[in-house]
Amino acid sequence: MIDFHNHLLPGIDDGSPDVDTSLALFKGMAELGFDEIICTPHIIADTHPNNPTTISQAADVLKEESKKLGVELDFRFAAEYMLDDTFQQALSSKQPLLKLHGNRILVEFSYIQKPSKVENFSFELQIAGYEPVLAHPERYMYYHKQMGFYEHLKDLGFELQLNLLSLTPYYGKEVQKVANHLLKNGMYDFACTDLHHQRHLDALKAHFTPHSLKELFSQFKLKNQELSAL
Questions:
Q1: C-beta separation of 98 from 55 below 8 A
Q2: CA-to-CA distance for 63 and 9, rounded, in angstroms?
Q3: Measured between alpha carbons, how far is 196 from 8 in angstroms, rounded to an integer?
Q4: pLDDT for 107-116, tens place per residue?
Q5: Are 161 and 190 in contact (CB under 8 A)?
Q6: Which domains does the chain have, with CATH numbers?
Q7: Is the pLDDT at 230 greater than 90, yes or no?
Q8: Residue 89 has what DSSP assignment?
Q9: Strand arrangement, sheet containing 131-135
Q10: C-alpha distances in Å from residue 125, one per residue of 41, 98, 103, 146
Q11: What's the pLDDT band for 117 if we cut at 50, 70, 90?
C-alpha cells in the first residue's frame, strides 16, 4: 500500500520534530502495511513557508541520519500546497511544483475560511497541466451543510483524498458522518493517513490493521496504487 499524505520529514512543519520521531513513525507505518511512502510537508505562506529546496534538504537529513543509525529508508517527497494567494502567484509565474506522481499534486483548503476562488484555482491548475488531489475534504466544515458542493469539486477536476481517521470519531462525529457518507457514495479517489505524530499513529493502530486497510482500499476502489513508482 502507498501513503502519499503525511508529515514525516523532520523539523519542517507541524509534523515530526526530529529524526528519531520520523523513524518511529516510519516504523509504525510499515506495521500498518504501508510499503511505499511519499512525504508531503505543508507549504503555507504564513506558517510553513517551505519550498522544493527546504523540503529536499529535510529529506536528505532524514536519509543521512537514518543511515548512520543503520536504517535504510526508501521514500519520495512532494508537498501539501495550501491554495492561497501565494500559491496562485507561484502558479502564475510557472514555478515548478512538487508532484506526487505524474501530474498529480496534493492541495488543501483553509479549515477556517471557505475559499472564494475554487473555480479559478481549478482552471489555472489544469491549464498548467496539473491534476489536483484535494486533501481531507470531509474536514472542511463549511461544506457540511451544502453536500452538493463535493460533486461540484469533482466536476471541477479535483480528486478527493480521505483521511483514514475521519472514518473514526478522532476529528469529531460530524466529520465522521460526512466521511462515511462520501465514502459510501463513491466520492473518494484515495485514502491516506495524514500522519503527524504518535497520537495519530496510535489512533490508526487502534482502528485499522493491514488486512482491514487492504479490504477498505479494495472495496471502495481507491486508487492509491496509481501513484506508485514501483
A1: yes
A2: 10
A3: 7
A4: 999 999 999 8
A5: yes
A6: 2-227 (3.20.20.140)
A7: no
A8: H
A9: 42-43, 80-82, 104-108, 131-135, 159-163, 190-192
A10: 20, 13, 10, 24
A11: confident
